[in-house]
Amino acid sequence: MSDRREFLKVSLAAAAGMAAAHVLPASAESAPLPDGIVYSAEKPGKWSDKVKSHAPVATVNGNKVSVKTEHSMSEEHYIVRHTLVSKTGEVLGEKTFHPSDKEAVSVFEIPAGHTALFATSFCNRHDFWVTAFTI
User: Fold this and answer.
1) Domain boundaries, the chain
2) Helix locations, the chain, DSSP H
3) Helix (H/G/I), strand (E/B), else coil: 112
């Protein structure tokens, strides 16, 4: 389990750092993502048939954001983690899932002053996915 945690920490830090290293345009949706490391609905790479079940969906309601990944949860194949990351790479929230969880849904409070955000979803088989959104 510690190897998986270390991988997640390194993956999140790398993705957030790469996103923060670029000057984001007015809309976070057009932020560049590194090919073959981070996947998105716009750039699914080798996982083009997995977008619907792996790209996180962020829904904003006031100062809260709900992140959902439409993915089945089983011992063999499940969503491991969601994170909410600011445009500067700051982790604003995180939730770890277990194969026994019924669904991969998390709710985070958005701190004041954050408008361009990234929701991430990590699948134990199909890598690290990110959805950029603005509020």
Assistant:
1) 2-134
2) 2-21, 51-54
3) coil
